[in-house]
Design brief:
heterodimer, A: mainly alpha, Rna Polymerase Sigma Factor, Chain: A, Arc Repressor Mutant, subunit A, 2 domains, 9 helices, B: mainly alpha, 5 helices, about 65% helix, elongated, disordered N terminus
Chain lengths: ~190, ~80
């Protein structure tokens, strides 16, 4: 059944439709929560809180934007709140382009993205690298580059202008690329 | 050119892809003098092409790193929300 019909049924008290909406989006929400939080327990907690918000607010949902857009926004806000309460000073500042872009240091990476599924050491490197990135930048990178949302959708979710999204994306990409370059240049 | 076309293509980004990507970030039109200068540079610069290829690979690493919700986490979610299968 299509999303808008399920939302309409859920708004009229149909619990089965509500369950179907949860099942439709639980994998997306869990995966996105993990990608922002980088911790399975926190990702599960965020997923639960996100769907609780959806259940409580389903009657206010107007259908003007996609439900997924709304869910992404709740996850992003929840993860930001968690990150700010837990780590105020542990992130690397990337407010300066010159400090981020390091095109002179180019190494040949021996590891390729198709090795990720079976390589726990690689996962750890990716986790450690992105955890240094400020959550505000991490969310933009994840929404635009990893989840594949448009710049406009990303801007709407994070409530930033399009130039601001592009700027954060540009710096986040360069920062992560430099972090991986530092780690991979020693890998054979 | 659309935003989709301006995104670096997976695998083999061309100089044009790289130029479009940079100009898009700079807010420049593709045929502006600044973008033409960038294109000229990139067509002759292995280092820049290599750099942008590594940025694209970075994105692919994070795209391919996914986690699956477990059956237990699914059940806990349904219980938490007071729903039934």
């Amino acid at each position: 059944m299509e999303e808008l019909k399920l939302i309409e049924l859920a708004q009229n008290g149909d619990r089965k439709a509500l369950t179907d909406l949860v099942k439709m989006y639980e994998q997306t929400v869990y995966n996105f929560s993990f990608k922002i939080c980088r911790h399975k327990d926190r990702a599960e907690h965020t997923m639960q809180e996100t769907f609780l918000s959806m259940v409580k607010s389903i009657n206010q949902f107007s259908g003007q934007s996609k439900l997924s857009t709304w869910l992404y926004r709740v996850v992003a806000n929840h993860c930001l709140m968690l990150a700010r309460s837990e780590n105020k000073y542990g992130f690397t500042s990337i407010d300066d382009d010159d400090a981020v872009i390091d095109e002179k240091s180019i190494a040949d990476w021996k590891i390729t993205p198709d090795k990720i599924a079976e390589n726990n050491e690689l996962k750890q490197i990716l986790d450690e690298s992105i955890q240094k990135l400020e959550p505000e930048y991490r969310i933009v990178f994840m929404l635009r580059d990893v989840e594949g949302l448009s710049t406009e959708e990303t801007a709407k979710i994070v409530e930033l202008s399009i130039p601001a999204v592009k700027s954060r994306l540009h710096r986040a990409r360069a920062f992560l690329r430099n972090e991986l370059n530092e780690r991979f240049k020693y890998e054979q | 050119m659309s935003n989709e076309n301006q995104t670096l293509k997976i695998g083999m980004p061309t100089c044009k892809d790289v130029m479009a990507h940079i100009c898009d970030n700079l807010g420049e039109e593709l045929n502006s003098p600044r973008c033409i200068e960038i294109k000229t540079h990139l067509e002759n610069c292995d280092n820049c092409q290599h750099y942008f290829k590594s940025v694209e690979t970075t994105i692919q690493f994070y795209k391919k790193y996914n986690v699956q919700i477990s059956d237990e986490a699914h059940k806990r979610l349904i219980d938490f929300l007071g729903l039934k299968e």
